[in-house]
Amino acid sequence: MRRSMMYLLLLLATVLSISCTKRPSDEQIKSDIQAKVSADPDTKDSEITVASQNGKVSLEGKVRTPSAQTKVEQFAKAEPGVSDLDDETSVDPSLGAQTQPPPPPLSTPPPAEEAQKVEPPPPPPPLVLPAGTVLTVRTSQGLSSKDSQTGQTFIATLAQPVSVKGQPALPAGSTVSGTVVNAKAKGKIKGEAQLDLALTSISVGHHTYEIQTAVLSSTEKGKGKRTAATTGGGAAGGALIGGIAGGGKGAGIGALVGAGAGLIGGAATGNKQIEVPAESALSFTLSQPLTLQR
User: Which residues have CB under 8 Å from 19's CB, separation 6+?
Assistant: First the structure.
């Protein structure tokens, strides 16, 4: 009986010894787990470190997805010889992401293509009306030596279009502004009537240009004696193209253009005042060039 008991103890010791001899080493456990992780498509992008000590395995590092993290744990738990598992891995979705290569640089167009780029056309050169150009205007209001005031502004419209070297420059109907340079009523006993006019600006489209013209000066003396002159230069002078005196007692005044002189008064009234009725046509001469932007 005693001999049988000793035999059983010896057999058990032998079995335990053989079992301990077949347990994988820590290095073998570590290597096997690492190999399984690297071979599986779901976990091959993981960056983990496997450590094993007396069958206790610890995992550290990053995995791409929660499912990959679960799979790594399963590999470790299923490994023979593993007695315990400590998983310290974390999930990083950017792990293993492929960086897109930069797009190829665009080829530089040859010089010929650059030359074909459409450039905006240059603006047309301005038109210049020279000094001496005649502007014929039609007054919008009546003017007189008796009722008009020095410095008063009057409005007129261009009666005839003006061209420069065959190119249209000022269309008929353009608005013109002028000023009464001097207005003096004739006295009952002595003195003379005086009415001087000049143009100051003209509007073309959306632009208004300042202009300078010779002054049209008309004087009324004595018993209906009338003189007229143009000051500031201009051989053609100014001319009244048509006008009727007030009260229906005057005569129609035709165009009168002379060398350096011109009549601007419509006609004299009974008390020898100078009258320029509305719609009278007057001609002024530019004393300075006028530059028009196009």
Answer: none
